[in-house]
Design brief:
This protein has 298 residues and is an alpha+beta fold. The protein contains one helix and 17 strands.
């Protein structure tokens, strides 16, 4: 009887171990099945998204579009920008309007449609506020009308003919009461407008101390959209006398071919009270920094 009981116990133990393995295999199979279902759901969602985008793109009457600065309205102090849209298909009765939302204001511009399906129109933007810009096109023809969101810009200053797009700074150092630094500045010139009277202005505690003519860097290529300027100083190095506690600011000023004047905040340093290395540097990358101060032609 003891032997039989022992044998039965062994058999039960083997059955329990086999059952636990079977349950573990079943759980693994369930997990694998769940993972496969999850992957399949993701694939279905991706396919659905691709189909939805394809359907939306097929229904989109706009093939391509672009906006670029084209001048200024001196009387109303507005920036002019030309918009060009290319239609996928059009009819004789096709009419296109461009809706422009600038901050709290909405403007509608009628577009001219030519025989090749190209639409063109000129918009006016206020540039004295940091407003977001949103564009949408309304295409009507053949008894149907469709509104297409084109996107926009986070700040209206991004539509200015000239924009600060990059820089490099060496130093600065502070020795024997003189702050020294070499630097350059790059302007994005999308419309190819002329850049007149470029100059670096150096301020100490808000007072203009020095002006240095800005000249194109020898490494800048003629015709590039990005124009790189350096100060016309010995070794292209700024040297300004200051004392601990002083704040030194460098601004870049110029006028474009439309007569619009720019004053870009660029560099700012503060001399620590202990006379150690100046603190601060480039303004770019600071989201709270306003766009350039503009001066309209008289």
């Amino acid at each position: 009887m003891q032997l039989l009981s022992l044998l039965m116990s062994v058999i039960l133990l083997v059955l329990l171990i086999w059952q636990s393995w079977a349950v573990a295999d079943l759980r693994r199979s369930l997990r694998n099945a769940e993972d496969q279902i999850y992957d399949l759901e993701n694939e279905v969602q991706e396919i659905s998204g691709d189909v939805a985008r394809a359907v939306e793109e097929a229904a989109n009457p706009i093939q391509d579009w672009e906006v670029h600065p084209s001048g200024i309205n001196q009387e109303q102090k507005r920036l002019l920008a030309d918009a060009i849209l290319k239609l996928k298909s059009w009819q004789e009765d096709t009419v296109v309007y461009l809706e422009t939302v600038v901050g709290p204001d909405k403007h509608v511009t009628a577009m001219q449609v030519d025989d090749l399906g190209s639409c063109s129109g000129t918009m006016m933007f206020p540039v004295n506020e940091q407003y977001e810009v949103r564009l949408a096109a309304v295409v009507t023809g053949g008894g149907e009308s469709r509104r297409v969101d084109l996107g926009g810009w986070t700040d209206i200053s991004m539509l200015l003919p000239l924009q600060l797009c990059g820089s490099s700074v060496g130093g600065p150092t502070y020795q024997e009461g003189v702050l020294s630094s070499d630097f350059d500045l790059s302007l994005r010139n999308e419309s190819g407008v002329e850049v007149l009277d470029p100059v670096f202005r150096i301020y100490r505690n808000g007072t203009l101390e020095h002006e240095a003519e800005a000249e194109l860097s020898e490494s800048a290529s003629v015709g590039d959209r990005d124009l790189t300027y350096v100060p016309a100083l010995p070794d292209q190095t700024l040297g300004v006398e200051c004392v601990p506690g002083d704040r030194i600011e460098v601004r870049f000023s110029c006028t474009d071919g439309y007569g619009l004047g720019y004053d870009f905040p660029y560099l700012s340093w503060t001399i620590p009270e202990d006379g150690s290395k100046p603190e601060g540097g480039r303004f770019e990358g600071n989201e709270s920094l306003p766009g350039p101060e503009l001066t309209w032609p008289a």
